[in-house]
Give the backbone structure.
Amino acid sequence: MPRYRLAVWTVPLVVVGLALGALARGAAGAEADCRAIESTSERLACYDTAFPPKAKKPAAVQNDTSRAAYKDPFIAEEARTAAKLKNICRGC
């Protein structure tokens, strides 16, 4: 019985998938054909209108006083490890 249900849904899903693929292909073909334009300035203008530049993100604020300064938690651990290594006698 489950195999029959799978077969019932397979055909409509394939048909819907093919229809969506055909619609997406038609939408992609609606873009302007800028390659065919001979003049360089007109071709660039065509590309500028077809693909406008994206807005840039605002720069991050460097001196944000709402946050505390970063404190590295490993500085003290590194100092302790370095002190232990310096106390090892290597030629006694």
Remarks:
- The CA atoms of residues 63 and 69 lie 10 Å apart.
- The chain has a mean pLDDT of 78.
- Residues 1-52 form one domain.
- The first helix runs from residue 2 to 28.
